[in-house]
Design a protein that fits this description.
By secondary structure, the chain is of the alpha/beta class. The protein has ten helices and twelve strands. The protein has three domains: about 80 residues, Winged helix-like DNA-binding domain superfamily/Winged helix DNA-binding domain (Arc Repressor Mutant, subunit A, Orthogonal Bundle), CATH 1.10.10; about 110 residues, D-Maltodextrin-Binding Protein, domain 2 (3-Layer(aba) Sandwich); about 100 residues, D-Maltodextrin-Binding Protein, domain 2 (3-Layer(aba) Sandwich), CATH 3.40.190. The N and C termini lie far apart (about 60 Å).
């Protein structure tokens, strides 16, 4: 099936968009409301696309539709086409008015609070028409969001190696610290062994989550088994509330105590840990162009995190 003038003229973005909507909805009837079209018009658009390509794109059954291997290949590339078109429209908007634009960012909760939040605040103060959509989750979830192009880039703590389809831009490296509320009596001690804390009440992320595994690795690096958790939760608000009460301990990335402001109610305990520093990086897709607003935001991220990169 050579790419030629006939195919170029006959493949319509509208038909491709309809096919993608049908697959996402799981059926032509289910896509009627989403597309605001009749089922017969949807069926004709899909049939026209199949006729143009000379292959079946959908397997139809009473339960709905599933993409054939050919259909799956088409919608995978189609998602890239529509993403690039969206990016081009955003680029035109930015070029028309550099003070406006929309950016979609994926990041973790600690990085959202410590780094993404102050950078957004500074940009919006200068350019009130800019808008941001921030998706938070663990690293695994963020990679999925990046793969399907729901975010323009992600900011997260990563392993030293990234997948072939990704590019990483390391901002700084951050170690983990053991933290407690200022009312916890452990904050008055000058030196603590991690083994002395195994029976303390701990609030950590679930150990089967990405961040939970990073927290557990702190104990493994000291030759200890992951501790029994008193509270297992991904809720930042719950963790902070328990820490502020003065009884609970947790494991946090060190940067979260330094930016955007120091936390007067939180202290890093004097626990000697092995080098647990991990890169905090901006991750993008190699085959995806960045918008002007994304490039501007990344420049601001570098400027904001420069003290962390210098170890100050």
């Amino acid at each position: 099936m050579p790419w030629n003038e006939r195919l170029r003229r006959r493949i319509k973005l509208r038909d491709l968009d309809i096919l993608m909507a049908v697959i996402a909805a799981g059926g032509m009837g289910k896509a009627v409301g989403r597309l605001n079209m009749s089922q017969s018009a949807i069926s004709k658009a899909v049939a026209d696309l199949e006729h143009t390509l000379g292959v079946r794109l959908l397997d139809r059954s009473r339960k709905g539709v599933e993409p054939t291997p050919c259909g799956y290949a088409l919608v995978q590339r189609g998602a890239i086409v529509f993403d690039e078109l969206r990016q081009s429209v955003a680029d035109i908007d930015f070029l028309s008015d550099p003070t406006a634009g929309e950016l979609r960012i994926g990041t973790t909760e600690p990085l959202a609070a410590a780094i993404i939040s102050p950078v957004i605040d500074r940009l919006v103060r200068q350019h009130p028409l800019m808008s941001f959509h921030v998706i938070t989750g663990d690293t695994g979830t963020l990679y999925q969001q990046l793969a399907v192009r729901n975010v323009d880039f992600m900011l997260a703590r990563i392993s030293h190696e990234v997948a072939e389809e990704h590019s990483s831009d390391i901002l700084f490296r951050s170690a983990s610290v053991i933290v407690a509320g200022v009312r916890n009596p452990l904050t008055r001690r000058r030196k603590i062994a991690l083994s002395d804390l195994m029976n303390e009440p701990l609030v950590l992320a679930p150990l089967d989550s990405n961040f939970g595994m990073l927290q557990a690795d702190v104990f493994r690096a000291c030759g200890l088994a992951p501790p029994r958790l008193t509270v297992s939760s991904v809720s930042t608000n719950l963790r902070n509330e328990l820490l502020s009460n003065g009884r609970f301990l947790s494991v946090l990335p060190g940067f979260s105590l330094r930016v955007p402001r120091r936390h007067p109610w939180l202290r890093a305990l004097p626990v000697e840990l092995p080098d647990t520093r991990m890169p905090v990086a901006i991750v993008t897709l190699k085959n995806r162009s960045s918008s002007p607003l994304a490039r501007l935001f990344i420049e601001r991220l570098h400027a904001f995190t420069k003290p962390l990169a210098q170890g100050k």
